[in-house]
Amino acid sequence: MRADTGTPSAYIQPIYVTKPLSLGTRSDSVKQRDHRLRGPSGAGSERKEESPTLARKRPSTRLPESDKPAVPDELLKRARRVARRLYKAYPDAHCALHFESPLDLYVATVLSAQCTDERVNMVTPELFRQCRRVEDYLGLGTQRLEKLIQSTGFFRAKTKNILGGCQAMLERHDGEVPRTMEELVKIPGCGRKTANVILGNAFETPGITVDTHMGRLSRRLGFTSEKDPVKVEADLQRLIPEKDWTKFSHTVISHGREICDARRPLCEECPVRKDCPFPGSPEQMAEMESRARSRSQGPKKKTPTKAAAKATTRARRTPSTRPRPSGSSKADRTSKKKSG
């Protein structure tokens, strides 16, 4: 006989919840999981894709896949080694343009066309002080804006692009800078290069910026043989992880400015010299230095060929067919002396 503890039996017996509200039983959840993993028939192990309406698509600057063959493993490994060494050599590489907002970066990038970043950074402080919104640029007007950016060169075309871009942002995007590549390239003065700069530095969407430095170094490193910036970008996207695209752009551009000059690259100081096929041999390096010296000394005077020298001599000996003024010939001068 069980001793009476003074506690009602209802509190001694365990209470089991057999069907929680809106959660389903354990067996139901297991069945739903198996249904998602294996399908209705129970065969196969592929997970069904998530509905596009539920999963928000992350903005990307990746170009469509091309018909080119797969990247060789050796080239892929070399590209990754070059990237790691450049990251180590330029740990503080960043966007050289000064900005505080996506709109500032859009304007600064438009101004940087055919102009140095240093000059742009000298012009933008006063411009950004007066203009904080797209309405401010539109209210500034063409003449006042041209006067503010005149020292950056091509100021009339840049003024047209800036005002046109601000008008487009006001009409299509409520005065905000778009956050996707598809929308940015429709803004006046904004191509893929400018869009990659804005997305990578203002919105943290990785992008490869192909300017003159990036194109030159990519060809020298053997990463591409293309000259079209879009094709260069596509080749680099296959070599560099997407999360590092913006960082890779900053380091390569810094390396192009400091070491890998277009005319006189400092190959002896290059941190990626062991993985760089340029210039290929000491003879090619000497030839490149010779061309650089000849460019710095100016164009050489052309030595006339033998045929050209003979033609010049013959022209000097041939009497001129132009009519001479009266009294200028030798016979006229002699007759004047006799008559005098």
Structural features, described:
- There is one protein chain.
- Helix 4 (102-111) runs antiparallel to helix 10 and helix 6 (134-140) crosses helix 8.
- The chain has a domain at 102-202: Orthogonal Bundle (Endonuclease III, domain 1), CATH 1.10.340.
- It has helices at 9-12, 26-38, 73-89, 102-111, 117-130, 134-140, 142-149, 155-172, 181-184, 192-202, 212-220, 229-237, 245-258, 282-297, 306-317, 330-339.
- The chain is flat, with a radius of gyration of 36 Å.
- The chain contains 16 helices and no strands.
- With 340 residues, the chain is mainly α.
- Mean pLDDT is 80; it is low at 1-12 and 14-55.
- Helices cover 52% and strands 0% of the residues.
Class based on secondary structure composition and strand pairing: mainly alpha
What is the overall shape? flat
Order of helices and strands: HHHHHHHHHHHHHHHH
N- to C-terminal distance: 173 Å
Q: What is the assigned CATH homologous superfamily of the domain at 102-202?
A: Hypothetical protein, domain 2
The helix count comes to 16
Helix content: 40-55%
Describe the protein's topology:
Elements: H1 9-12, H2 26-38, H3 73-89, H4 102-111, H5 117-130, H6 134-140, H7 142-149, H8 155-172, H9 181-184, H10 192-202, H11 212-220, H12 229-237, H13 245-258, H14 282-297, H15 306-317, H16 330-339
Helix pairs in contact: 3-13, 4-10, 6-8, 7-8, 11-13
